[in-house]
Write a structure and sequence with these properties.
This protein is an all-alpha fold. The protein is built from 14 helices and no strands.
């Protein structure tokens, strides 16, 4: 078996060529998006096969995955600070693949939820350890640039994932989708086993202990900038999960676009990828705060327009698409910058910080997204209202986090 790549002249701080570093980070980040979005076209078939009577309950298959990912984040973070990022990633990918196998053979709703919860546990490792690796290798605006470039791929996955799911369904049944997810997990496991070097420096390794972990978590939670941007990101992430939960029902039940659903979803998701690409090129010039704060304001303004259209009965598929494309475009500027700003003060606590951030953003976002999704009533009103409310709250949180200002750091005069 080949050994992990060693650092060579001209390589990036990871020891790998920059292109491969970026590809690995992007692939690990995209794993979770694939596990969620590829199955959206199959929700009706899964619901029928597993006898899920209430249509809104099908969304729990997504929520179970997210909750598993959130809970396990608290474990994988300290582990990655102690034994290293590489071992945690490999363990997580193994669990993820096992969860995929069980999902593909589930014969009851309860078994499916348990399998997806397990798969989410495995997915927590890439979620936590990947961000920690990037923080090990980069800082400041360079970290924001790398995260943004990786987010281009991450955001591209939702563009094609529903179409992949639809394609699989045209040749087989929904179980084949989970078999595909298992294969992807295994292939990533092999790639990391062969190529990935350890990013955690020995001097930054922290002994694994309950008291030490608790102290690290307390230190993270006492860092105002980290907590503020973590909470703001949780609120904004709730809108994304709300959209994912509701998308299939909105396009099919409200607008009657069953066959066009993957295309519509792809168009909306493509705006996030475009924004992430632009952010990677603009963040060095304008900084993370200007881009993230401006995007939050624009996101909320677009959401309020969508809410007004839904409330007045003037919402059409065209206006809905325009509003959602705008919101997801602005979301593309918010995600990577808020994560980077939350991680920036953490330094040697990168693993613990990534763990706490992943736990709270995923759990809060999943709960808020589930509430939005379960409020679906045959119209777009619950979704658009959820976007507007959470957008306003995120702006308020950031405003007070930065000392009652926007666009500049709290300690900057």
């Amino acid at each position: 078996m080949s050994q992990p790549a060693k650092k060579t002249p001209g390589a990036s701080p990871s020891g790998l060529p920059f292109a491969e570093t970026l590809a690995l980070v992007a692939a690990l980040m995209a794993l979770n998006a694939l596990a969620i979005d590829v199955m959206l076209p199959a929700l009706p078939a899964i619901g029928s096969a597993l006898q899920i009577d209430a249509h809104n309950d099908r969304q729990l298959i997504i929520t179970a995955f997210l909750i598993g990912m959130a809970v396990a984040s608290l474990v994988f973070g300290p582990l990655s600070d102690s034994i290293g990022r590489r071992k945690v990633l490999l363990a997580g990918l193994a669990i993820y693949s096992i969860g995929g196998v069980i999902s593909s053979i589930a014969t009851s709703f309860e078994a499916m939820l348990a399998a997806r919860f397990l798969q989410g546990i495995g997915a927590a490792a890439p979620r936590v350890a990947t961000i920690s690796m990037v923080r090990d290798w980069y800082s400041g605006r360079e970290m924001g640039r790398v995260m943004s470039l990786a987010m281009v791929v991450f955001m591209s996955v939702p563009i094609v994932a529903p179409s992949i799911g639809q394609l699989i369904l045209s040749f087989g049944e929904w179980r084949a989708i989970f078999a595909m997810l298992t294969i992807v997990g295994i292939l990533l496991f092999i790639w990391l086993w062969v190529r990935l070097p350890e990013s955690l420096k020995p001097q930054n390794s922290r002994p694994l202990s309950f008291s030490g972990t608790l102290l690290a978590y307390i230190k993270v939670m006492r860092t105002p900038i980290t907590v503020g941007y973590m909470l703001a990101m949780s609120l904004i992430l709730g809108t994304l999960f709300g959209f994912i939960n509701s998308a299939q029902q909105v396009f099919v039940d409200v607008f009657g676009l069953q066959d066009e659903f993957p295309i519509m979803f792809a168009l909306i998701a493509s705006t996030m990828a475009a924004a992430s690409f632009l952010n990677a090129n603009l963040v060095r010039r304008f900084g993370m705060r200007k881009l993230a704060h401006g995007a939050m304001l624009a996101f909320t303004a677009a959401s309020l327009v969508g809410t007004t259209l839904a409330a007045t009965g003037l919402q059409t598929v065209t206006s809905f698409m325009i509003i959602q494309c705008l919101c997801m475009f602005f979301f593309g500027f918010i995600g990577s910058n808020c994560n980077a700003m939350a991680m920036e003060p953490m330094g040697s606590l990168a693993g613990a910080a990534s763990s706490v951030i992943s736990f709270f953003t995923t759990l809060i976002g999943a709960v808020l997204g589930a509430l939005i999704g379960h409020a679906f009533n045959g119209s777009t009103a619950p979704l658009t209202t959820g976007f507007a409310v959470l957008g306003v709250l995120a702006i308020v949180v950031v405003y007070f986090t930065e000392g009652q200002r926007l666009f500049t750091p709290k300690n900057e005069s």
